[in-house]
Amino acid sequence: MGQTKLKIECLINGQIETNTYFIISKDRRVLIVDPADGEKVFDFIKKNELIPEKIINTHGHYDHISGNQFIKNHFDIPICVGVLDYDYLLDPELNMSYYIGENYISPEAEILLDDNSKISFGGEIIDIVSTPGHTPGSISLIFDNKIVSGDLIFTEGIGRTDLAGGDPQKIIESVKKLFSKPNKESKIFPGHGLYGGLKMFKEVLNEFNIRS
């Protein structure tokens, strides 16, 4: 098999240690997934001499979108989000910033994603999978045996469903959908905490009778 055209790097940042991911092409272009602390994300981009192309929010909660404005101010690049989370970017109560006294409103998303959307980047195709439950418009990204899953699943459990738009049945369906035919080589990159191979998530997946 040939060498992958894309690599992924993680920056832990923001008030509750969000995993911001940088999907980087061979020519140093980058997709920024879930920027939390805009200044730290900006510094990472400059330090690594990257060329931003898009911001992708896996969902519309404050800790995953709070860097949108800062990045947008410095790089005129589009924001992408799941179609059902479009309003979350613009509503401090939905994105939860209201409850910590921030009242954050992100710039509007220019690109709305849903199940089976695809992003062509760096000579590869990134598949978008709708994975609702944590929020109605939560999405996951899949490319080269890598799964960027937002707040769907963590090493210690699945995402919260007690916030606005959360649905405990849908999040279970989303986990089963995403991992119904797990590739043994897959690596999971969640919105918080540890990331790595399927074995790290074995206990959680076993709860849904998914053999990792």
UniProtKB/TrEMBL annotation:
InterPro entries per the UniProt record, alphabetical: MBL_Glyoxalase_II, Metallo-B-lactamas, RibonucZ/Hydroxyglut_hydro
Gene3D superfamilies, A to Z: Ribonuclease Z/Hydroxyacylglutathione hydrolase-like
Keywords of this entry: Hydrolase, Metal-binding, Zinc
Record carries keyword Calcium: no
One of the record's GO molecular function terms: metal ion binding
Metallo-beta-lactamase domain span: 17-192
Pfam families: Lactamase_B
Cofactor field: Zn(2+)
Source taxon at top rank: Bacteria
Classification via SUPFAM superfamilies: Metallo-hydrolase/oxidoreductase
Key word Cell inner membrane present: no
PANTHER family, A to Z: HYDROXYACYLGLUTATHIONE HYDROLASE GLOC (PTHR46233:SF3)
Name of this chain's protein: Beta-lactamase domain protein
